[in-house]
Design goal:
The protein is α/β, with parallel strands linked by helices and about 300 residues long. The protein is built from twelve helices and nine strands. The structure holds coenzyme A and zinc ion (ZN). Coenzyme A binds near residues 46 and 109.
């Protein structure tokens, strides 16, 4: 059995996709609950154009308002140099860059070719070269694209290499619209880890087609120990048709604990946090454990 790191992305991937604006104070309260529940990493917000993603328009206030806990890494998503400068001002622990393997999705998302995105990343890494900030490189639409269909594994490996040449310290392979299948996950993760055995590799799944937790199991089997997930299972990309929620943090932790993996995060506190999240939202969140309870919750015989 393995130690698995839980990286919650609800405050970014979850809320970026909501029409309802969540007030800054509520975002801060939500993130503080996740910190107290001892997840390993929190993607706090994104420093993107507020016109492109209105729910992220309070990024500075959220980042500066949260109470940071030791042992938790506070990460933010950044699309360009302007975003990196804003993030640096807020003393984040990690900057997460994103480019899509699919040219079409990259154009929709950040209005750049993948080559232009990497040119921007070079500027960002040289701007950050004297700062003590980790940089993680995310590849979106790694397992399939809603516009282009299947994605070449060679291209994925080439872009991982490009990121590493620029000097990023970790890589995330993201399944932006839930197209990954378990056998594909095993094959790609195994290939990446064979080539870069020491690489801190994260897998980021959406449960759009119900394969999210099966993909985690196959990722672990291939040697991956870091997974992104979103409290309540919220999430999705505003620039991809049909994109729905990430795998659900409390459902993931529930599964991992009951199959015997070691997870630092506290399941009961996560479930309470997900109930708090539900109280903020104007629709039902997709998570299942907050509805069904844990497998060891017994009911009185009536
Ligand atoms: N933070 C705040 N504002 C930003 C910004 C940033 N990081 N980057 C650009 N802007 C603003 C500019 O100041 C400009 O504002 P103005 O219209 O008031 O003058 C406007 O956005 C356009 O700037 P430009 O440099 O021409 O960027 P663009 O139009 O090519 O947009 C992105 C590119 C990436 C900045 C924008 O599309 C974006 O933020 N997209 C969001 C991507 C995202 O979050 N996707 C989901 C997560 S993967
Ligand atoms: Zn995502």
């Amino acid at each position: 059995m393995k130690t698995i790191k839980i990286q919650d992305v609800v405050a970014r991937d979850g809320l970026q996709n909501e029409d309802q604006f969540i007030p800054t104070e509520q975002k801060i309260a939500l993130i503080n609950r996740l910190s107290n529940a001892a997840v390993d990493k929190i993607e706090v917000t994104s420093f993107v154009s507020p016109k492109a993603v209105p729910n992220m328009s309070d990024a500075e206030a959220v980042m500066k308002g949260i109470t940071r806990q030791p042992g938790v890494t506070y990460s933010v998503l950044v699309p360009n140099l302007k975003g990196a400068k804003r993030a640096l001002e807020c003393e984040v622990d990690e900057i997460n860059l994103v480019v899509s393997v699919s040219e079409t999705h990259n154009q929709k998302n950040v209005r750049r070719t993948t080559d232009q995105s990497f040119e921007n990343f070079r500027d960002i890494l040289s701007f950050l070269s004297n700062e003590r900030i980790d940089v993680n490189g995310t590849l979106g639409t790694t397992f399939g694209c809603p516009f282009e269909g299947s994605i070449s594994e060679d291209k994925v490996l080439r872009l991982v290499e490009q990121y590493l040449e620029l000097g990023v310290s970790g890589i995330t392979l993201a399944d932006t619209t839930g197209m990954a299948t378990p056998n594909q996950v095993y094959r790609l993760a195994e290939n990446v880890l064979k080539r870069w055995p020491e690489l801190p590799l994260t897998l980021h799944f959406h449960n759009t087609r119900g394969m999210g937790l099966a993909n985690v199991i196959e990722g672990i089997r291939a040697g991956v120990t870091r997974f992104d997930a979103s409290l309540g299972g919220l999430g999705g990309c505003p620039f991809a048709p049909g994109a729905t929620g990430n795998i659900c943090t409390e459902d993931l932790v529930h599964m991992l604990k009951f199959i015997g993996h070691d997870v630092r995060a506290d399941l009961d506190q996560l479930i309470d946090s997900a109930k708090y999240l539900q109280s903020l939202m104007d629709h039902e969140v997709p998570g299942q454990i907050i509805k069904a309870g844990k497998i060891n919750d017994l009911h009185p015989v009536s």
